[in-house]
Design brief:
The structure holds three protein chains of three kinds. By secondary structure, chain A is mainly alpha-helical. Chain A is built from four helices and two strands. Chain A starts with a helix and ends with a helix. In chain B, the strands form two sheets. In chain B, strands 2-4-5-7-6 form a five-stranded mixed sheet. Chain B has a two-stranded antiparallel ribbon with strand order 1-3. In chain B, helix 9 (about 190-220) packs antiparallel against helix 16 (about 325-370). The chains are: A mainly alpha, B mainly alpha, C alpha/beta.
């Protein structure tokens, strides 16, 4: 569980980082007249950031545990779900 | 080389290919063979419907005009997809659980299934999307013009713009009607369409990459060279970019658009078949966008530096290959652009048609007809299909009209951003729907309306500015000369980019209205239920959560309605499935709240939550109860169920507590009655000697004439009774102390036989006095036991003296035996008297119990002796019992555990 | 042989004192020491009243009283109940069963004499009617 929370935090931080890195003042740092192999730094920076986000998401997404995902097959339920359902049946009995 | 007719023919052929593809995909999916169509890859590709012709052609144009700004359009969605876990996953989950059919349905459903909100959202979506469709039509006609004109003359080769656009719109309408409304699907998924869209996504990506590679590596000789030669030609499109408010506004708008655009919502949420596909889309969609834009700048730069000045940069993708004489690549590029346009048109039209039919046509139809069915029994289903088909045709026709009237007034990209800003007005309410429980429908409606009006005034209206003198005047001076209402300088906020200005005001006022409106208005009960369902979607096991009311409706009534909306087969399947789950036959199906909420969801999947709710409410209430009442009842039912559930749990707890209390009470009462009993017996035992004492002392006091003999006798009786009283009190205290364990009790190793011998010596005179022979048959060898010698003697004396006292045999004999078994030292006192009746045997060990009573009056027995003895023996870990003996009389047996040397040592 | 008082009491000390004071008061007295003998003695001795202890061996005083009240001959026999338990419950039960008077042990001799005298007066009164 702790792992799951951690991954969620990482994922959140990643999107936050991406958003912050795309706006001033961070982006202004790279908006200078400088080229690498003839390509302006700002272009390298933006595409590099983009690529980084893609790869990081790729690595992260595989590990995210979607525990509370509903099962596609009916009738295949987690233990907790069963308990809940029993309760609900009881409720209905009361009606 | 490329005649217009040929290009048009290719376009039509391409659409025909889509038809075939969609048709076979539909068939595959109907057979259940979904493995390919159901893959995360197809899902991701279909999301790239985001990249329209605006992207395909316009991005290059935008790059050429405004540098890196076009990247913001892609980076916004990238952020949303990188964070797919937080917003998209929740949207998709809610979409699945609540059978959401569109963004209008999402908002309507969350805000108490409000139809008003549904209508508002639908109208805004139509207004915001129609220009966008026009934009696609314009892209197609322009591209056909460009690609065919280059060969011959700049004029059109016999085909005019308008009829071309109309033809394409008609073709798109045909395709969309054919595959978008084939039937009313349970979850509004269109596998054939999605497959076609995914295919188009590949086509446009490959086409764009092909053009990019051609430009960069064949004619431009490398990325570095392109940049170098561009800077040599003084073309600088990127350093001018200051990444100011406009950059941020576009980032925000594109992030909002990827969530709020009706077509994106349709593809990402409604067409999603598996939540896990987001896991792939999270990185793959940004990657797709990445690939789509990697060559944009080089193409723009190369076009600007090589093509003659005045060339339309929006068409560089086509004109660059053409200028190099590569008309095949140009044709391919055209197909790519055509794909971008058509995929957008198709999905946007489907999404709008669903919204129009579910939120505008259905409610009107429901209101105007009291009974749901027309004669043919499938009224709703048919009505839905028809209304959708008409909606599709209407939306495309509107798009065409817009194109026809405003087609030449603006650059492509401007309309794209205006549209984004329009649908971004859904964002505050959508985020509130997902995360803010207290948001109310009144707040949401007001907010969306305010946002929409501000957007319309500050951005949409000015986009027509060039076409009308009247509008231009308003833009410059404000309406009626009210300068603070100038569309592009609202409240005097001047010198701002019009887009930033509009986004700032509209989103700000929208959000404020939502927050304030929600805080000052109250949620209805249904809103509250829906809000919890949405916000807590991950913590609730959503199945069974909604409760509806159970009224007099029978399963038959519901079947009737379901068949009409979903069609016979699907209705039967739902009913059968539920019957199977509840373990009954379909005919015996009982209408439970569960079943009704399931049905409502299924119906909502076709006609939207609000309409489904109305339909079911009508059936369930016989059409006489108002919707408000129905909602109220639903909420009350829910509350009652929750309450009774809680009550039941509390009751259960109380019941067990009560049981414990009852048991404790019973024990206490038993103890109390034992105490009462004991006190009553003590009272009796004390009063009896007291009576004699008092009476005789009174006699002695009042009768002075008594003889000496009488006097002596009476005094003697008083004396005897006093002694009896004393010993009684002693015994009571003794017993009490024993029972409460107050007295210090020390078990020491002792020789039981020694004690017994001593007692027999004491008792012998008493026995002799009564002519009773006391003899021993068995004598144990000397064994050590653990105990208190004096106390043990007391027990033996009690037993033997009882035997002496109560032995009324003619020839009384008392036998005292002692022997040892493996681990016990045993003493038995046997008499040959009348014995103890079975009835008495049960009670003789109780306090004040007296067995047979001798009549000779010499009764020293106080009824406590045996009780005390048993208590003493118990303290020595032994047992005193009355055993059945072969002889007639009674046999009391004392058994004491033999002490082991070792343990004795320890005990000491 | 008609006597004035029959005493049913098992405690020898109490019995002795009762016999003494009642005889000294001038009445003819006889006694039994267990419950089973009471009815027989009444039939034989025809006492005017009965002094009855509750805690009698073999048959309790209440049982005896109940039996007496069921019998036509002894239905109206005045009965003075003696009890060492001294609880209200006993008194109520005695009244219910038709006891004529109730005295708790230990008693003052005069109380017993007074009680007996009243009952005997009652007998005299009813007989003279």
């Amino acid at each position: 569980m702790a792992d799951r929370r951690k991954l969620e935090n990482i994922a959140f931080t990643l999107s936050l980082f991406g958003a912050i890195a795309m706006v001033p003042p961070i982006i202004s740092l790279f908006n200078v007249e400088k080229t690498i192999f003839g390509v302006p730094l700002i272009i390298i920076y933006l595409f590099g950031l983009w690529l980084f986000l893609i790869i990081a998401t790729f690595l992260l997404s595989k590990r995210m545990i979607n525990e509370d995902r509903p099962n596609l097959e009916e009738g295949e339920k987690s233990g907790a779900g069963n308990i809940e359902e029993i309760n609900i049946e009881n409720m209905e009995g009361k009606e | 080389m490329l005649s217009a007719n040929f290009v048009i023919f290719i376009a039509v052929a391409y659409v025909f290919l889509l038809f075939i593809l969609a048709y076979f995909s539909d068939r595959v999916s109907k057979r259940g063979g979904k493995s390919f169509l159901n893959s995360p890859l197809v899902y991701t590709l279909s999301i790239s419907v985001y990249a329209t012709s605006w992207t395909f052609y316009g991005a290059v144009g935008s790059a050429a005009r405004s540098g890196l700004e076009f990247l913001a359009i892609y980076l916004g969605p990238t952020i949303i997809f990188v964070g797919w876990w937080f917003i998209l996953r929740k949207l998709v989950r809610i979409g699945r659980e609540q059978r959401i059919t569109s963004i209008a349905d999402l908002l309507s459903s969350r805000f108490g299934k409000s139809n008003r909100l549904g209508v508002l959202v639908t109208l805004i979506a139509v207004i915001g999307t129609t220009p966008y469709i026009a934009l696609q039509l314009k892209a197609i006609t322009t591209s056909i013009q460009v690609i065919s004109a280059s060969e011959n003359s700049p004029s059109l080769s016999g085909v005019d713009d308008g009829s071309l656009a109309l033809g394409i719109a008609a073709l798109m309408a045909l395709f969309t009607i054919f595959f978008g409304t084939r039937n009313i699907n349970a979850n509004e998924q269109h596998h054939g369409v999605v497959a076609a869209i995914a295919f188009e996504a590949i086509v446009k990506l490959v086409a764009f990459l092909a053009v990019g590679i051609f430009v960069v590596f064949y004619i431009g000789s490398g990325v570095g060279n392109i940049f170098t030669s561009a800077s040599e030609a003084n073309i600088d499109i990127y350093s001018a970019n200051n990444f100011g408010p406009r950059w941020i506004a576009i980032l925000f708008l594109s992030a909002a658009a990827i969530l709020c655009l009706p077509r994106q919502f349709q593809i990402t949420v409604v067409e999603n078949s598996n939540e896990d596909h987001l896991r792939t889309a999270g990185w793959a969609f940004p990657a797709y966008l990445f690939l789509m834009s990697i060559f944009t700048i080089p193409i723009a730069l190369y076009g600007l530096s090589t093509l003659p000045a005045g060339s339309n940069p929006d068409m560089f993708v086509l004109t660059l290959p053409l200028s190099e004489g590569n008309s095949l690549l140009a044709l391919f590029a055209f197909i790519g652009g055509f794909s971008s346009a058509t995929s957008m048109i198709i999905i946007a039209t489907i999404a709008l048609s669903i919204m129009i039919s579910n939120h505008i046509v259905m409610p009107i139809a429901l209101r105007s007809s009291d009974n749901l069915g027309t004669e043919d029994g499938r009224g709703i289903s048919k009505l839905l299909l028809t209304s959708r088909r008409i909606s599709i045709a209407m939306v495309l026709f509107l798009g065409f009209l817009y194109f026809w009237f405003a087609g030449n007034s603006d650059a492509l990209a401007a309309i794209g951003l205006i549209s984004f800003a329009g649908v971004a007005q859904f964002l505050p309410s959508m985020l509130a729907a997902l995360y803010w429980r207290e948001a109310t429908v009144k707040g949401a409606i007001a907010a969306t309306l305010v946002g929409f009006l501000v957007w319309g005034w500050t951005l949409f209206l000015p986009s027509f500015g060039t076409s009308s003198q009247f509008l231009a005047n308003i833009i410059d001076n404000g309406p009626w000369g009210l300068s603070f209402l100038r569309p592009q300088a609202l409240f005097g906020l001047e010198n701002m980019d019009p887009l930033v200005h509009s986004v700032f005001w509209s989103i700000l006022l929208n959000s404020f209205t939502l927050i304030i409106g929600s805080l000052i208005s109250k949620q209805s009960s249904l809103e509250r239920i829906q809000a919890n369902l949405f916000v807590d979607i991950f913590s609730l096991k959503s199945k069974n959560q909604e409760k509806f009311l159970r009224r007099s409706a029978t399963a038959n009534d519901l079947m009737f309605v379901t068949q009409r909306v979903l069609g016979g087969k699907r209705a039967l399947a739902i009913f059968d499935n539920f019957a199977k789950q509840s373990g009954v036959r379909r005919e015996e199906l009982i209408v439970t709240p569960d079943f009704i909420s399931l049905l409502e969801k299924e119906l909502a999947g076709s006609i939207g939550a609000a309409s489904a709710h109305v339909v079911l409410s009508k059936v369930l209430s016989g059409g006489e109860v108002s919707l408000e009442e129905v909602m109220q009842i639903a909420d009350e039912t829910q509350q009652v169920i929750e309450y009774s559930h809680r009550l039941e749990q509390t009751t259960k707890k109380l019941r067990s507590t009560a049981k414990e209390l009852k048991q404790a009470n019973f024990r206490l009462r038993e103890l109390d009655s034992q105490k009462d009993d004991f006190l009553s017996k003590v009272s009796h035992e004390v009063r009896t000697p007291m009576t004699s004492i008092r009476s005789f002392s009174e006699i002695l006091l009042t009768h002075k004439d008594l003889s000496e003999e009488q006097r002596m006798k009476f005094v003697n009786t008083i004396n005897e009774e006093s002694k009896r009283l004393t010993s009684l009190l002693d015994e009571i205290l003794d017993l009490n102390a024993l029972e409460r364990g107050e007295r210090v009790w020390q078990n020491r190793p002792l020789n039981g036989e020694d004690v017994l011998k001593r007692v027999i010596n004491i008792c012998n005179p008493l026995a002799l006095q009564k002519n009773i022979s006391l003899f021993r048959k068995k004598i144990a060898r000397e064994d050590l036991i653990n105990g208190d010698a004096d106390r043990l003697a007391q027990v033996f004396i009690n037993l033997i003296s009882n035997a002496i006292k109560y032995n009324d045999a003619k020839d009384p004999i008392i036998e005292v035996n002692s022997y040892s078994t493996k681990d016990k030292y045993i003493v038995e006192v046997i008499d040959n008297g009348a014995g103890i009746s079975a009835q008495d045997a049960d009670i003789i060990f109780e306090k004040f119990a007296r067995g047979r009573r001798n009549n000779n009056g010499d009764d020293g027995g106080l009824g406590l002796g045996l009780a005390i003895s048993r208590e003493i023996v118990g303290k020595m870990n032994g047992k005193l019992e009355l055993v059945n003996n072969s002889s007639k009389g009674a046999c009391f047996r004392v058994s004491l555990p033999l002490g082991k040397k070792k343990s004795l040592m320890v005990a000491q | 042989m008609n006597i004035d008082i029959l005493i049913a009491e098992d405690e020898p000390g109490i019995l002795e004192s009762l016999e003494f004071i009642l005889q000294r008061a001038g009445w003819t007295v006889s006694s039994v020491t267990d419950g089973e003998l009471v009815i027989e003695a009444i039939n034989k001795l025809k006492p005017k009243i009965l002094v009855l202890d509750v805690m009698l061996p073999k048959k309790s005083g209440f049982e005896v009283l109940k039996q007496l009240r069921l019998n036509e001959d002894t239905k109206n026999l005045p009965v003075l109940i003696l009890t060492a338990k001294g609880q209200r419950q006993d008194k109520r039960q005695a009244e219910m069963l038709g006891a004529s008077a109730f005295i708790t042990k230990p008693y003052a001799n005069d109380d017993v004499i007074d009680g007996v005298r009243q009952l005997l007066n009652l007998v005299k009164f009813t007989n003279s009617q």
